[in-house]
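Q: My labmate handed me this sequence with no annotations at all. I'd like to see what the chain might look like in three dimensions before we decide whether it's worth expressing. Could you predict it?
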Amino acid sequence: FTSATFDSLYYIAVTRPDGTTLLNTPLAGANAELDLSTLTQTGTYQVVIDPDEGATGDITTTLAADVEGGALSASGPSVPTTIVRPGQNSHFTFTGMAGQSLSLGLTGATFDGLYYLAVTRPDGTTVVNTPLAGADGDVDLPTLAQTGTYQVVLDPSAVGTGQATITLSADVDGGALTAGDPSQTIAVERPGQNGRFSLAATAGQTPALKFSDVTLGGLYTVTILRPDGTVFASRTLIGDNTITAPALTATGNYQVVIDPSSAATGSLSVALASN
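A: Here is what I predict for the chain of 275 residues:
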């Protein structure tokens, strides 16, 4: 809905061919949108625009189907998409396996405001629905809990139009860090991609991580995950740096995740010392 001139709220009601209500939602402002749930009936739907408090004015209504971007692959190319109709979304899919660590990178986005990236599991439940802004951004997915086809929807806010390129990536496996060994180098080559190292440690240790030869070009976040996958510590760094973790609370295999900001790519080297 664009160029609305109503002074107050206006309600959008959509009814199915059998007369039942699909939605009845209040909107406000000159530009707004509604995403309809997957249609369950074939036939003629009714749309009613009802200004509140007897208001008068004009409005332009656009019906749009999702732009089908196709299948994303963690080893395949980035996929561009263009949204040209107000209220339109872009839709993608990817095949995931339980236990995978994946991320999505957005580059070259030209939307004027926020845009949302939503991912749903094969059973239809939500994994993430994250707002982004600016030309480049990324979303790290929690470890996948289901095997099957995931749905990805790119939804510009306030009927925004524009284009973006989306990239699905698996974490780069940097291997195991061992105290006293030489630095290990990883290259993050895909927008939105993370690097990951493992670290076998015992409760009470305070491991120090030294990051050198960093070419990521901006901020990056280092997150240490406990053996059960929960976050133990997290720090945002820039350039070459060293951090010392608090005393570890459990014995087992920790994960160190390197997450460049704004879908940046580059490389770095990591060395481990234990205090």
